[in-house]
Amino acid sequence: MNKSQLYRQLNVQVDLAVEAHQLLRGESGEEIPGVIMDEQTLDHAKVTIITVETDEGVDAIGKPKGQYITIDAPEIRTNDYSIHDSITQILADQLTELMGLRDDASVLIIGLGNWNATPDALGPQVISKTMVTRHLYQLSPDDLKGKLRKVSAISPGVLGTTGIETAEIIRGIVDHVKPDLVIAIDALAAGSLERIGTSIQLADTGIHPGSGVGNPRAGINEETVGCKVIAIGLPTVLNAAIIAHDAVEGIFKEFVTTPSLYKLYKGIKPEVLSKIIDDVLSPFQGNLMVTPKEIDSLIQTTAKIIAGALAISIHPGIDREDYERYLQ
Questions:
Q1: pLDDT, tens digit, for every residue of 174-185?
Q2: Which residues are CB-contacts of 97 (< 8 A; sequence separation ≥ 6)?
Q3: Which of 3, 16, 194, 199 shows the smallest number of beta carbons within 10 Å?
Q4: Are 60 and 34 in contact (CB under 8 A)?
């Protein structure tokens, strides 16, 4: 059964470009015109780079032209400082290359999300651990001259608590602060359980907050805020419809040795299966999102990794050995 077609039937949005790419390639493994994929296997992480180069690729994958870097690091779930330190450095290396900052560049970091809802609190958590220097830049000690960049940061909240579109708030700040780069951090919706809390996506195309949970807000990108935007996202929730589908599929695959039962499953039309799942999830109008019970711990761990990677990649004088000293 075509999973991409089923997702469309279930109205499930895929935030991660690597998952959208996998859905399109399916079982055939055929390349997608206008889309290039490169993979690197490193210690404790796998880095997948999806580059959307043409309008044909945009139409196929449903993402704007640009580069999408996914760092898959399942060991984030382990309580091992040395492994987390290695993942921090991998993320910092990818950020450094993606940002391409000048020595005198200034950066505005935006922590998107609702700090009152744990699965949506990644952005505010990163901001609480971010090293901001814009207000102290001229007063930095001599040994740090030329080793820091101007960094400002804010958690603007969400429309439900501010009454203001987040993109409007950011545009106002950008007009006043005039940064060279905006980095927006947000929680995403995963397409598979194993990616929750362990896959970090970087994108040079900006971000559309809330799109993965069926509540899309105005996009935050160069066109809407007036300067280059890099997005950092981490999946923290999964649509329950995906779990329901995977459970049904798993049951029928157990009957693969019984041709009549397996043939019955293969013959079910995607719209029929989606209607069954919709009926089960009808109290939530098919928009039930699921998150693991340890999400608070995952958010804290990944926020620390992302904040550390930002410190290392933005400030030339801070390395992996001592960046935590500056985050105290």
A1: 999 999 999 999
A2: none
A3: 194
A4: yes
